[in-house]
Amino acid sequence: MAKQLSSTFAMSTQLAANAARFGLFYAVNRAMDAQARRLGQRPAYKPKRAVPSERDLMASLGQLFVADADAVGRGLYAAAESDPDGMSGIVARLREMFVEFPQALARRDAADADSVRLESGADGLPDYYVQDFHFQGGGYLSERSARIYDVQVESLFYGAAQAMRRAALRFVAEAIAGRDQRRLSLLDVACGTGRLLRDARLAWPAMGLTGLDLSPAYLGEARRHMRSLRSVSFVEANAEAIPLPDASQDIVTSVFMFHELPPDVRRVSTPE
What we know:
By secondary structure, this protein is an alpha/beta fold. The chain is about 50% helix and about 5% strand. It has a domain at about 160-270: Vaccinia Virus protein VP39 (Rossmann fold, 3-Layer(aba) Sandwich), CATH 3.40.50.150.
């Protein structure tokens, strides 16, 4: 009975946290829409194919949040922690995001995605990478981009980005069930700011973790996010040619990377 109560409490707590996150970033998303309308830079977009209704999308988000909470309740992985920077850190990054937002809209309207080329380190990188993804200033190479990326993606997905990433943990948990985590290694390809790695470290404190990314700025943010936890190895490299020995990793994860890649690069970057 005590175990069942503990499981129910863990699930309920995680579900409440997911709901609170949704409420915060849903409000931020709507505020960004309002700001865009005030700036007169929100051209109407007409989908060429059928798209889910907002009701369908909200139902899917609800299912995602429940699945995340259920996994926590069943002990597959740890509950999501509060943001390491606290609410003050979230507010500071949101403020910076809103300052950057009009510039991003202007770049979008001008079809200008080249501000990244002014960043140090842009030379020698693949052409597909040297662009302002989603028209954010500095693409994936600027320190400001790295600072505000997490609140940007959470605002885009109504606070569901964390639960979307954590869905990968379910498959990791199933893959390592009954195995000694001290003897296992996980590589997160295009680890970005290290959010999945932090969740993995909280779930499996003794597992060997490696994060690979092409952006030194994002790797710097990932290192900061891993503070106070057992160390993680970070590799600055292209996923097209991962500089690690063959068969050196037991598990490979990747979140939000493949939709950014040209089709031919996706095939090269897919582990066999």
